[in-house]
Amino acid sequence: MQTNRQRHFYLRKALIIFLDMLLIALGLLISILLRFGENPSPGMTRHMMTVVRFSPVILGVSLFFLFVMGVYRVYWRFADMRDMLRIVLALSFATLTNLLINRVFKLKCTRIVLSLDGILSILFLISARFAWILIQDRLMVDKNNKNVRRALIIGASPAGAALAKRINESPAGSVRHEAVGFLDEDVERLYRKVSNLTVEGTLADAPAVIARKRVDEVIFSDRSLPTQVRRRVFRAARRAGCSVLMAEESKLSAVRLEDVLAGWRHEKDGALSGAYAGRRALIVGAGRIGARAATLLAEAGAQVTVVDQDEDRLAVSALKECECVLADLADEARMERIVRAARPELLCLAAGLSRENASGSALRIAAVNVAGAVGLWKAARDAGAEKFVVVTEHPERCPDNLAQAARVVGAEEIHALSAQEDGMRTYFVLYRNLVSSSGSVLGHMLEKAARGETLTVRAGETYSFVSEADVAHSALRVAAACEPGTYVIDSEDPVSAEELAKLVCREAEAHAEILVEGEAAAAETEATAEDTPVEHVRRLSEDGAYAARLQRASADVREALKEENEEKAARALRSVCAAEKPE
To answer: Is 425 in a helix, a strand, or coil?
Structure first.
């Protein structure tokens, strides 16, 4: 017994076939009028009657080839370019067959009429389908619920197909999502049906597809897309006024500008498991980077101890697999006892005062970022640690605040000590523009845009943004596989200053003016992709004058700490800020 759905299916298909027959017959009628209408002759009636008698054969042959080519396997609502091609081929074969029948059986039907009918039938059938698709896309909106959000899914993988099915089968509520199509980089998937939806194009087609499908939101089905691709889709969506979401297990979460400027998240890395499984690690600092590094090490099978002075940081669920110890980096005696008890094979220093959490006291900054960091290195060396990793911000230019200057001085002291020691391997991992930091160029731009101030950028200038996951993952990879030295973590895909300013204004919904200064560089260097966004860099202190200035500042800081002289400590750190970056 047929269900209502089956009856509806067969009725719809019968109506489509009937309409196609009418369109083909209409094409035949117009062909007769074009051929005989303006050229009356004594034999016109005879020719017209011959065509009319031959019309059942014309219709039958046309429908036969339309069935054989699979034109009626899909609804018009989901017809795409491949279906249009099937119509062209089917009716072309039908026309050739009708001409052959006319010649073999000597029916004396005019060949011009048969040829015109084939051409007009192709045009009528394709036009009818395109018109129906246009009506569906423009007018046939969910009339029962005006709060439907039309969603374009990025990625037609099995995960994307499952997401589309889950969205379209979700119960109606105050707001409901409706998947309307896919975009995918795999050209083999283009214009195919996935979960009864069409793959509308590649990611480069995002602006056109968003406009044509009247998309309200764009949903990323997975996190595997390169940064540049994510940013291009995000920019197209924001320009069209669409929200951008990420499928996270069974829920959808909003994607921010910060998420598309740097990596989303690293999956579990087998290389880290091979390097750190069963090893002892001590992470000093449970901030954004330190907590991420501790989590990665715990996932890799290491025995992890985490030290921080903030009890709330140590209480987060991400560190539940780690041993947590409350201590202040400036308390050198306590830190030495902790290191001796942990006996770490790897020690990662990801703590210190920064622009965001500096208390304002130059003595406190120097005690943490200089004396505390150097004391920790010595404690690790004396405890027999194999590797010591310093993770800190890399100043794009000269340090512009006391906390950053103190970190540079502390790193220089550790570098000088490590150069005299052959036992413990010391690594300096620097990062630029941590995307979640309010002190990065992104934070400054967002603040200025919110105030409506002019965003001044230089033509040709680019910025690299990294996430906490990028930095933590790359630092551990460096310590596992590289020689001791200084490394910088950069984005695999820098963003131009002008593009960043436009993204900031759009994200902040601000109308700040963007002023572009200077001229873009004539020559562009071609970037090479690496397995990790890590490159070896020349250290700032390789400049002789700058190195001498750092040595003097380091000595002054030590004296200020002994004398507890706030003014002297501030003056020493400001001297580092006043130095020029070496060329």
So the answer is: strand
